[in-house]
Specification:
Layout (H helix, E strand, L loop, with lengths): L4 H18 L5 H22 L7 E18 L12 E22 L2 E24 L3 E10 L3 E16 L3 E18 L9 E19 L4 E19 L12 E19 L4 E14 L2 E6 L5 E23 L1
Helix pairs in contact: 1-2
């Protein structure tokens, strides 16, 4: 089997990606999947390169910005009563900047494999923490604004797509993805120097998408995607100033939900190998009711109804792609 120079580039990218991922917070399962997918792509590419010199491997990289609004609440007991909203946190305009990497391989004309990774650092944001005594947010017993200008956002996606239409000027495909998204929020307040509470939310989903592209000119194409999926939501929090809670895990929350996302973008062809990319996402992830488990210093555990979480997000990506 002939090992091409492009395959050496894939090996380098695999090694580099491993170093990047190992220093971040995605889970071991996602890291193993990522390693396996890139190794699989390497094998497929070597086999394909023995028979064909077409450009079926694409690497994309660039910068990404994200703005999100996030909210969750709990009730007073497992029945969702006493009151129906006991405590509520709202995060507004959580803005983060980072980088993304995307690997695409087409072993066959109508089959495409994909691995995507993104890491952002939060640069600004604010929020509000409120507690209530009566139903429907009546009789406020506590309310305090806070800043949330640090933390991380991490996205990982892998999957495969099948082209129903694959023409020179138009393509249409459907794809299935496993997606993991982790966002680590901080709760800070300049009036409380020791306040350094954290809330780590994780969404894992299986998503089905429909994607298409259309050439407006020989060099410029427009792309569109809509996707829907079912998700599992898990969170862990450390309320560092609340002495009644255990640390570093004060409470956890679990629920199921859905994700809906749309994407539109432009692709400008500079030459046969290099393209400029610009695309934006808009989406939401919403959960139904679940369970909130609080862990107390006296070793007691209190369970109450998690009313659900809701996040709306907007993303803009600018980058380049190299095909070989």
């Amino acid at each position: 089997m002939v090992i091409s120079k492009s395959s050496e580039g894939i090996r380098y990218f695999l090694s580099l990606t491993g170093k990047i991922i190992e220093t971040n917070t995605i889970g071991a399962a996602e890291f193993i999947i990522l390693k396996f997918i890139f190794f699989f792509l390497l094998v497929l590419f070597n086999v394909h390169a023995s028979y064909c010199q077409s450009r079926n491997f694409t690497l994309e990289a660039g910068g990404v910005g994200d703005i999100s609004n996030f909210q969750w609440s709990i009730a007073g007991n497992l029945q969702g009563q006493s009151p129906n909203i006991l405590s509520e946190l709202t995060f507004k305009k959580i803005t983060s900047l980072g980088v993304f990497f995307n690997g695409i391989y087409k072993p066959l004309k109508r089959l495409e494999l994909n691995v995507y990774y993104q890491k952002n650092g939060i640069v600004s944001g604010q929020g509000n923490d409120a507690d209530y005594q009566d139903d429907n947010r009546k009789f406020i017993t506590y309310q305090e604004p806070f800043t949330s200008d640090k933390g991380q956002l991490e996205n990982f996606r892998t999957g495969a797509g099948f082209y129903f239409i694959s023409k020179a000027d138009f393509s249409l495909k459907t794809a299935f993805y496993y997606v993991s998204s982790v966002q680590n929020f901080y709760i800070l307040n300049s009036d409380f120097d020791n306040l350094n509470s954290t809330y780590k939310a994780k969404w894992r989903s299986a998503q089905l998408s429909v994607e298409n592209s259309y050439h407006l000119t020989p060099n410029l194409s427009i792309l569109g995607t809509i996707s829907y999926g079912l998700l599992k939501y898990n969170s862990k929090a450390n309320w560092n100033l609340i002495e009644i809670f255990k640390h570093p895990i004060s409470f956890e929350q679990h629920a199921n939900g859905y994700v809906l996302e749309g994407n539109i973008g432009l692709n400008y062809k500079l030459n046969s190998s290099l393209n400029l990319l610009l695309n934006g996402d808009i989406g939401c992830k919403k959960t139904s009711k679940g369970i909130d488990d609080s862990y107390l210093q006296n070793n007691n555990q209190i369970a109450t109804q998690f009313n659900g979480s809701n996040i709306n997000f907007y993303q803009l990506r600018i980058g380049t792609s190299l095909s070989f």
